[in-house]
Amino acid sequence: MNIAVKLGRRTGFLDKPSLEKTALLDHARHTTGLEDFGDPWFERPLEVLLESVAQEARLNPAGELAAEKQFHHVLRDRLLTQWWFARHPEILARPLRRPVVIVGPMRSGTTRLHRLLAADQRFSHMRSFETISPVPRPEFEEVLAGEKEDFRPVLASRIMKVARLANPRTLSIHPTGPYEPEEELGLLVASFWGMKHEAQWHVPSYGRWCESEDATPAYRHMADLLRLIGWSQQVSSIRPWILKTPQHMLDLPALLQVFPDARLIFTHRDPQAIVGSAASLAWNQTIIYSDHVDPKTIGEEWLRKTRLEIERMQAARALIPAERMIDVQYEEMDADWRGTMERVYRFLDLDMAPAVAGMEDFVERSQRLKRRPHRYSLEQFGLTAERVHEELGDYVRRFAVPREGQAAAG
Protein backbone atom coordinates (compact mmCIF):
# COMPACT_ATOMS: atom_id res chain seq x y z
CA MET A 1 0.00 0.00 0.00
CA ASN A 2 2.81 2.39 0.88
CA ILE A 3 4.62 1.62 -2.38
CA ALA A 4 1.45 2.27 -4.37
CA VAL A 5 0.77 5.58 -2.60
CA LYS A 6 4.38 6.73 -3.05
CA LEU A 7 4.23 5.85 -6.74
CA GLY A 8 0.93 7.67 -7.11
CA ARG A 9 2.43 10.83 -5.62
CA ARG A 10 5.55 10.67 -7.81
CA THR A 11 3.48 10.26 -10.97
CA GLY A 12 1.04 13.01 -10.00
CA PHE A 13 -1.88 10.59 -9.77
CA LEU A 14 -2.25 11.30 -6.03
CA ASP A 15 -1.84 14.62 -4.23
CA LYS A 16 -0.27 14.75 -0.78
CA PRO A 17 -3.13 14.43 1.71
CA SER A 18 -4.20 17.61 3.47
CA LEU A 19 -4.67 17.23 7.22
CA GLU A 20 -5.45 20.86 7.93
CA LYS A 21 -8.73 21.91 9.54
CA THR A 22 -9.89 24.64 7.15
CA ALA A 23 -9.09 22.57 4.06
CA LEU A 24 -10.96 19.56 5.49
CA LEU A 25 -14.05 21.61 6.38
CA ASP A 26 -14.05 23.32 2.98
CA HIS A 27 -13.74 19.99 1.19
CA ALA A 28 -16.74 18.59 3.07
CA ARG A 29 -18.84 21.67 2.25
CA HIS A 30 -17.82 21.55 -1.39
CA THR A 31 -18.54 17.84 -1.91
CA THR A 32 -21.96 17.95 -0.23
CA GLY A 33 -23.12 21.48 -1.01
CA LEU A 34 -24.10 21.79 2.66
CA GLU A 35 -22.98 24.22 5.36
CA ASP A 36 -24.40 23.17 8.74
CA PHE A 37 -22.11 20.90 10.80
CA GLY A 38 -24.30 21.10 13.89
CA ASP A 39 -22.88 21.93 17.31
CA PRO A 40 -19.50 23.64 16.62
CA TRP A 41 -18.04 22.08 19.79
CA PHE A 42 -16.53 19.34 17.61
CA GLU A 43 -14.06 21.78 16.08
CA ARG A 44 -11.89 21.91 19.19
CA PRO A 45 -11.27 18.14 19.47
CA LEU A 46 -10.72 18.14 15.70
CA GLU A 47 -8.02 20.80 16.07
CA VAL A 48 -6.30 18.97 18.92
CA LEU A 49 -6.41 15.66 17.05
CA LEU A 50 -5.00 17.15 13.84
CA GLU A 51 -2.16 18.78 15.75
CA SER A 52 -1.37 15.54 17.57
CA VAL A 53 -1.43 13.55 14.32
CA ALA A 54 0.95 16.06 12.73
CA GLN A 55 3.36 16.18 15.68
CA GLU A 56 3.28 12.64 17.08
CA ALA A 57 1.66 9.99 14.86
CA ARG A 58 4.49 9.71 12.27
CA LEU A 59 2.11 8.31 9.67
CA ASN A 60 3.42 6.46 6.65
CA PRO A 61 2.13 7.45 3.16
CA ALA A 62 -0.77 4.99 3.28
CA GLY A 63 -1.54 6.15 6.83
CA GLU A 64 -1.73 9.79 5.74
CA LEU A 65 -4.09 8.90 2.92
CA ALA A 66 -6.28 6.79 5.22
CA ALA A 67 -6.39 9.59 7.79
CA GLU A 68 -7.51 12.13 5.21
CA LYS A 69 -10.24 9.78 3.98
CA GLN A 70 -11.40 9.20 7.55
CA PHE A 71 -11.64 12.93 8.29
CA HIS A 72 -13.50 13.52 5.02
CA HIS A 73 -15.93 10.73 5.86
CA VAL A 74 -16.72 12.04 9.36
CA LEU A 75 -17.14 15.67 8.26
CA ARG A 76 -19.38 14.74 5.34
CA ASP A 77 -21.52 12.66 7.70
CA ARG A 78 -21.87 15.59 10.13
CA LEU A 79 -23.25 17.74 7.31
CA LEU A 80 -25.62 15.01 6.17
CA THR A 81 -26.77 14.46 9.76
CA GLN A 82 -28.08 18.01 9.99
CA TRP A 83 -29.60 17.69 6.51
CA TRP A 84 -31.61 14.66 7.65
CA PHE A 85 -32.73 16.42 10.85
CA ALA A 86 -33.97 19.39 8.81
CA ARG A 87 -35.74 17.09 6.34
CA HIS A 88 -37.30 14.87 9.04
CA PRO A 89 -37.57 16.82 12.31
CA GLU A 90 -39.50 13.91 13.83
CA ILE A 91 -36.19 12.06 14.12
CA LEU A 92 -35.06 14.24 17.02
CA ALA A 93 -38.34 13.58 18.82
CA ARG A 94 -37.62 9.84 19.10
CA PRO A 95 -37.23 8.84 22.78
CA LEU A 96 -34.18 6.94 24.05
CA ARG A 97 -35.61 5.37 27.18
CA ARG A 98 -33.81 3.06 29.60
CA PRO A 99 -30.87 1.95 27.45
CA VAL A 100 -28.83 -1.01 28.68
CA VAL A 101 -25.20 0.12 28.72
CA ILE A 102 -22.32 -2.34 29.05
CA VAL A 103 -19.38 -0.64 30.73
CA GLY A 104 -15.99 -2.30 30.91
CA PRO A 105 -12.34 -1.89 29.98
CA MET A 106 -11.26 -2.69 26.45
CA ARG A 107 -11.03 -6.47 25.96
CA SER A 108 -13.02 -7.36 29.10
CA GLY A 109 -15.75 -9.32 27.33
CA THR A 110 -18.00 -6.39 26.46
CA THR A 111 -18.36 -7.47 22.82
CA ARG A 112 -19.53 -10.98 23.71
CA LEU A 113 -22.08 -9.70 26.23
CA HIS A 114 -23.26 -7.02 23.80
CA ARG A 115 -23.82 -9.53 20.99
CA LEU A 116 -25.63 -11.97 23.26
CA LEU A 117 -28.07 -9.24 24.30
CA ALA A 118 -28.37 -8.02 20.70
CA ALA A 119 -29.73 -11.48 19.82
CA ASP A 120 -32.87 -10.47 21.74
CA GLN A 121 -35.27 -8.73 19.35
CA ARG A 122 -36.81 -6.78 22.23
CA PHE A 123 -33.73 -4.52 22.11
CA SER A 124 -32.32 -2.21 19.46
CA HIS A 125 -28.67 -2.46 18.51
CA MET A 126 -26.25 -1.02 16.01
CA ARG A 127 -24.76 -3.10 13.23
CA SER A 128 -21.16 -2.87 12.14
CA PHE A 129 -21.90 -0.99 8.93
CA GLU A 130 -23.78 1.61 10.99
CA THR A 131 -20.86 2.36 13.28
CA ILE A 132 -18.68 2.81 10.16
CA SER A 133 -21.33 4.88 8.32
CA PRO A 134 -24.01 5.93 10.82
CA VAL A 135 -25.55 8.49 8.48
CA PRO A 136 -27.60 7.33 5.46
CA ARG A 137 -26.87 8.84 2.06
CA PRO A 138 -29.37 11.36 0.62
CA GLU A 139 -30.98 8.70 -1.59
CA PHE A 140 -31.86 6.59 1.48
CA GLU A 141 -35.57 7.35 1.15
CA GLU A 142 -35.43 5.33 -2.08
CA VAL A 143 -33.92 2.50 -0.03
CA LEU A 144 -36.86 2.69 2.37
CA ALA A 145 -39.22 2.57 -0.60
CA GLY A 146 -37.50 -0.57 -1.88
CA GLU A 147 -36.19 1.15 -5.00
CA LYS A 148 -32.49 0.97 -4.10
CA GLU A 149 -30.14 -0.99 -1.87
CA ASP A 150 -28.34 0.66 1.03
CA PHE A 151 -24.72 1.13 -0.04
CA ARG A 152 -23.38 1.31 3.51
CA PRO A 153 -23.06 -2.47 4.08
CA VAL A 154 -21.16 -2.74 0.78
CA LEU A 155 -18.79 0.04 1.88
CA ALA A 156 -18.30 -1.61 5.28
CA SER A 157 -17.44 -4.92 3.63
CA ARG A 158 -14.83 -3.22 1.44
CA ILE A 159 -13.27 -1.41 4.39
CA MET A 160 -13.07 -4.67 6.37
CA LYS A 161 -11.40 -6.45 3.46
CA VAL A 162 -8.78 -3.70 3.18
CA ALA A 163 -8.16 -3.81 6.94
CA ARG A 164 -7.67 -7.57 6.85
CA LEU A 165 -5.30 -7.30 3.89
CA ALA A 166 -3.30 -4.66 5.76
CA ASN A 167 -3.13 -6.86 8.88
CA PRO A 168 -4.81 -10.30 8.83
CA ARG A 169 -4.65 -10.50 12.65
CA THR A 170 -7.51 -8.01 12.91
CA LEU A 171 -9.95 -10.85 12.20
CA SER A 172 -8.89 -12.84 15.26
CA ILE A 173 -8.71 -9.77 17.54
CA HIS A 174 -12.18 -8.45 16.76
CA PRO A 175 -14.14 -10.82 14.50
CA THR A 176 -16.99 -9.04 12.75
CA GLY A 177 -18.96 -8.57 9.55
CA PRO A 178 -21.10 -5.76 8.09
CA TYR A 179 -24.29 -6.94 9.82
CA GLU A 180 -22.78 -8.10 13.11
CA PRO A 181 -23.88 -6.19 16.24
CA GLU A 182 -21.35 -3.45 16.94
CA GLU A 183 -20.61 -0.78 19.51
CA GLU A 184 -21.39 2.91 19.13
CA LEU A 185 -17.74 3.99 19.04
CA GLY A 186 -18.22 5.48 15.58
CA LEU A 187 -20.89 7.79 16.98
CA LEU A 188 -18.32 9.35 19.31
CA VAL A 189 -15.79 9.52 16.48
CA ALA A 190 -18.41 11.71 14.76
CA SER A 191 -17.35 14.39 17.27
CA PHE A 192 -13.64 13.49 16.88
CA TRP A 193 -13.78 12.15 20.41
CA GLY A 194 -12.39 9.15 22.15
CA MET A 195 -10.06 6.20 22.42
CA LYS A 196 -10.66 4.94 18.90
CA HIS A 197 -8.11 7.48 17.69
CA GLU A 198 -5.61 6.43 20.37
CA ALA A 199 -5.91 2.77 19.38
CA GLN A 200 -5.30 3.70 15.75
CA TRP A 201 -2.58 6.37 15.89
CA HIS A 202 0.10 7.39 18.39
CA VAL A 203 -1.56 10.61 19.60
CA PRO A 204 -0.77 10.88 23.34
CA SER A 205 -1.30 14.65 23.63
CA TYR A 206 -4.76 14.29 22.10
CA GLY A 207 -5.56 11.51 24.57
CA ARG A 208 -4.46 13.60 27.55
CA TRP A 209 -6.54 16.53 26.29
CA CYS A 210 -9.68 14.40 26.02
CA GLU A 211 -9.12 13.10 29.54
CA SER A 212 -9.25 16.68 30.84
CA GLU A 213 -12.45 17.71 29.01
CA ASP A 214 -16.18 17.23 29.57
CA ALA A 215 -17.48 14.71 27.02
CA THR A 216 -21.16 15.68 27.33
CA PRO A 217 -21.40 17.42 23.91
CA ALA A 218 -19.99 14.32 22.21
CA TYR A 219 -22.55 12.14 24.01
CA ARG A 220 -25.40 14.47 23.05
CA HIS A 221 -24.41 14.13 19.40
CA MET A 222 -24.12 10.37 19.89
CA ALA A 223 -27.70 10.29 21.21
CA ASP A 224 -28.97 12.22 18.19
CA LEU A 225 -27.19 9.79 15.87
CA LEU A 226 -28.86 6.89 17.69
CA ARG A 227 -32.19 8.56 16.95
CA LEU A 228 -31.24 8.84 13.28
CA ILE A 229 -30.12 5.18 13.16
CA GLY A 230 -33.30 4.01 14.88
CA TRP A 231 -35.34 5.96 12.34
CA SER A 232 -33.33 4.51 9.44
CA GLN A 233 -33.85 0.98 10.82
CA GLN A 234 -37.59 1.68 10.95
CA VAL A 235 -37.88 0.06 14.38
CA SER A 236 -40.09 1.03 17.29
CA SER A 237 -38.67 3.83 19.43
CA ILE A 238 -39.88 2.07 22.58
CA ARG A 239 -37.29 -0.71 22.14
CA PRO A 240 -34.38 0.02 24.52
CA TRP A 241 -30.93 0.32 23.00
CA ILE A 242 -28.08 -2.02 23.90
CA LEU A 243 -24.93 0.11 24.05
CA LYS A 244 -21.29 -0.55 24.82
CA THR A 245 -17.88 0.94 24.24
CA PRO A 246 -14.84 1.13 26.57
CA GLN A 247 -14.99 4.92 26.27
CA HIS A 248 -17.83 4.85 28.79
CA MET A 249 -15.32 3.85 31.47
CA LEU A 250 -13.79 7.32 31.19
CA ASP A 251 -16.98 9.28 30.55
CA LEU A 252 -19.69 7.80 32.79
CA PRO A 253 -20.80 11.22 34.12
CA ALA A 254 -21.39 12.43 30.56
CA LEU A 255 -23.20 9.23 29.62
CA LEU A 256 -25.51 9.50 32.64
CA GLN A 257 -26.13 13.18 31.94
CA VAL A 258 -27.44 12.28 28.48
CA PHE A 259 -29.04 8.91 29.44
CA PRO A 260 -30.18 9.50 33.04
CA ASP A 261 -32.25 6.29 33.25
CA ALA A 262 -29.60 3.95 31.82
CA ARG A 263 -29.20 0.48 33.31
CA LEU A 264 -25.52 -0.44 33.63
CA ILE A 265 -23.76 -3.79 33.28
CA PHE A 266 -20.12 -3.61 34.41
CA THR A 267 -17.73 -6.23 33.02
CA HIS A 268 -14.55 -7.24 34.84
CA ARG A 269 -11.47 -9.21 33.81
CA ASP A 270 -8.00 -9.86 35.18
CA PRO A 271 -6.12 -6.62 34.39
CA GLN A 272 -3.09 -8.47 33.02
CA ALA A 273 -5.36 -9.84 30.27
CA ILE A 274 -7.05 -6.46 29.77
CA VAL A 275 -3.77 -4.57 29.43
CA GLY A 276 -2.08 -7.19 27.27
CA SER A 277 -5.04 -7.57 24.93
CA ALA A 278 -5.64 -3.80 24.66
CA ALA A 279 -1.96 -3.19 23.90
CA SER A 280 -2.05 -5.93 21.26
CA LEU A 281 -5.15 -4.45 19.64
CA ALA A 282 -3.58 -0.97 19.55
CA TRP A 283 -0.29 -2.37 18.25
CA ASN A 284 -1.93 -4.31 15.44
CA GLN A 285 -3.84 -1.23 14.30
CA THR A 286 -1.11 1.37 14.74
CA ILE A 287 1.49 -0.56 12.73
CA ILE A 288 -0.79 -0.34 9.69
CA TYR A 289 -0.58 3.46 9.67
CA SER A 290 2.94 4.10 10.93
CA ASP A 291 6.35 2.48 10.45
CA HIS A 292 7.62 3.91 13.77
CA VAL A 293 5.74 2.13 16.53
CA ASP A 294 7.43 1.20 19.81
CA PRO A 295 5.72 -1.73 21.58
CA LYS A 296 7.01 -0.66 25.01
CA THR A 297 5.49 2.79 24.56
CA ILE A 298 2.18 1.16 23.69
CA GLY A 299 2.41 -1.11 26.73
CA GLU A 300 3.03 1.81 29.09
CA GLU A 301 0.22 3.85 27.56
CA TRP A 302 -2.43 1.14 27.82
CA LEU A 303 -1.41 0.28 31.37
CA ARG A 304 -1.85 3.96 32.25
CA LYS A 305 -5.10 4.15 30.32
CA THR A 306 -6.52 1.05 31.98
CA ARG A 307 -5.65 2.41 35.42
CA LEU A 308 -7.41 5.70 34.59
CA GLU A 309 -10.48 3.88 33.23
CA ILE A 310 -10.79 1.90 36.45
CA GLU A 311 -10.30 4.94 38.70
CA ARG A 312 -12.94 6.95 36.87
CA MET A 313 -15.38 4.06 36.70
CA GLN A 314 -15.12 3.47 40.44
CA ALA A 315 -15.56 7.17 41.25
CA ALA A 316 -18.63 7.47 39.00
CA ARG A 317 -20.38 4.30 40.13
CA ALA A 318 -20.17 5.41 43.76
CA LEU A 319 -22.99 7.83 42.87
CA ILE A 320 -25.18 5.31 41.02
CA PRO A 321 -28.01 3.51 42.89
CA ALA A 322 -27.19 -0.17 43.40
CA GLU A 323 -30.42 -1.32 41.73
CA ARG A 324 -29.31 0.37 38.48
CA MET A 325 -26.16 -1.73 37.99
CA ILE A 326 -24.82 -5.28 37.98
CA ASP A 327 -21.29 -6.77 37.76
CA VAL A 328 -20.29 -9.58 35.38
CA GLN A 329 -16.99 -11.45 35.46
CA TYR A 330 -15.28 -12.45 32.20
CA GLU A 331 -14.33 -15.81 33.69
CA GLU A 332 -17.92 -16.53 34.73
CA MET A 333 -19.13 -15.75 31.21
CA ASP A 334 -16.45 -18.04 29.79
CA ALA A 335 -17.41 -20.91 32.07
CA ASP A 336 -21.21 -20.57 31.90
CA TRP A 337 -22.65 -17.98 29.54
CA ARG A 338 -26.20 -19.23 30.06
CA GLY A 339 -26.05 -18.93 33.82
CA THR A 340 -24.47 -15.49 33.59
CA MET A 341 -27.12 -14.28 31.14
CA GLU A 342 -29.90 -15.60 33.38
CA ARG A 343 -28.54 -13.40 36.16
CA VAL A 344 -28.36 -10.41 33.76
CA TYR A 345 -31.97 -10.98 32.69
CA ARG A 346 -33.13 -11.08 36.31
CA PHE A 347 -31.44 -7.71 36.75
CA LEU A 348 -33.26 -6.40 33.66
CA ASP A 349 -36.53 -7.90 34.93
CA LEU A 350 -37.05 -9.79 31.66
CA ASP A 351 -37.82 -13.38 30.73
CA MET A 352 -34.75 -14.80 28.98
CA ALA A 353 -36.59 -17.65 27.24
CA PRO A 354 -37.58 -15.72 24.06
CA ALA A 355 -33.92 -14.78 23.48
CA VAL A 356 -32.22 -18.15 24.03
CA ALA A 357 -32.44 -19.41 20.44
CA GLY A 358 -30.86 -16.19 19.13
CA MET A 359 -28.11 -16.38 21.73
CA GLU A 360 -27.32 -19.98 20.80
CA ASP A 361 -27.11 -18.94 17.16
CA PHE A 362 -24.67 -16.16 18.08
CA VAL A 363 -22.44 -18.55 20.04
CA GLU A 364 -22.30 -20.92 17.06
CA ARG A 365 -21.72 -18.07 14.58
CA SER A 366 -18.98 -16.52 16.70
CA GLN A 367 -16.99 -19.72 16.53
CA ARG A 368 -17.07 -19.52 12.74
CA LEU A 369 -16.05 -15.85 12.74
CA LYS A 370 -13.15 -16.36 15.11
CA ARG A 371 -10.92 -18.59 13.04
CA ARG A 372 -8.03 -18.60 15.48
CA PRO A 373 -7.54 -17.15 18.98
CA HIS A 374 -6.03 -13.75 19.60
CA ARG A 375 -2.70 -14.49 21.27
CA TYR A 376 -0.51 -11.94 23.03
CA SER A 377 1.75 -11.52 26.05
CA LEU A 378 2.62 -8.67 28.38
CA GLU A 379 6.32 -9.25 27.69
CA GLN A 380 5.79 -8.18 24.06
CA PHE A 381 5.03 -4.72 25.41
CA GLY A 382 7.70 -4.46 28.10
CA LEU A 383 5.35 -5.36 30.97
CA THR A 384 5.01 -8.17 33.49
CA ALA A 385 2.02 -9.69 35.26
CA GLU A 386 3.59 -8.73 38.60
CA ARG A 387 3.78 -5.06 37.68
CA VAL A 388 0.25 -4.95 36.33
CA HIS A 389 -1.14 -6.56 39.48
CA GLU A 390 0.95 -4.28 41.66
CA GLU A 391 -0.57 -1.22 39.99
CA LEU A 392 -4.12 -2.57 39.61
CA GLY A 393 -4.38 -4.93 42.55
CA ASP A 394 -6.97 -2.74 44.28
CA TYR A 395 -9.32 -3.29 41.34
CA VAL A 396 -8.84 -7.07 41.53
CA ARG A 397 -9.62 -7.09 45.24
CA ARG A 398 -12.52 -4.63 45.04
CA PHE A 399 -14.39 -6.70 42.44
CA ALA A 400 -13.00 -10.17 43.31
CA VAL A 401 -11.65 -10.58 39.78
CA PRO A 402 -10.27 -14.10 39.13
CA ARG A 403 -6.65 -14.19 38.02
CA GLU A 404 -5.78 -15.64 34.61
CA GLY A 405 -2.54 -17.26 33.43
CA GLN A 406 0.36 -15.04 32.45
CA ALA A 407 0.02 -15.89 28.76
CA ALA A 408 -3.45 -15.18 27.44
CA ALA A 409 -5.74 -15.62 24.52
CA GLY A 410 -8.92 -13.61 24.13
Structural overview:
This protein starts with a helix and ends with a strand. The chain is an alpha/beta fold and 410 residues long. It is built from 21 helices and 8 strands. It is globular, with a radius of gyration of 21 Å. The longest helix is centred in the first third of the chain and has 27 residues, at 61-87. The protein has one domain: 3-Layer(aba) Sandwich (Rossmann fold), CATH 3.40.50. The protein is 57% helix and 6% strand. The chain has a 4-stranded parallel β-sheet with strand order 4-1-5-6. The relative contact order is 0.14.
Keywords:
single chain; 410 residues; alpha/beta; Rossmann fold; four-stranded parallel sheet; two-stranded antiparallel ribbon; 57% helix; globular; disordered C terminus
The best one-word shape is globular
Q: From the coordinates shown, what is the CATH architecture?
A: 3-Layer(aba) Sandwich
Low-confidence region ranges: 406-410
Q: What's the number of domains? A: 1
CATH hierarchy class name: Alpha Beta
**Beta-strand fraction estimate:** 5-15%
Q: In order across it, which strands form the biggest sheet?
A: 4-1-5-6
Distance between the termini: 29 Å
Q: Describe the largest sheet.
A: 4 strands, parallel
Q: Kindly state the mean pLDDT as a whole number? A: 91
Quaternary: single chain
User: What is the N-to-C succession of helices and strands?
Assistant: HHHHEHEHHHHEHHHHEHHEHHEHHHEHE
Total strand segments = 8
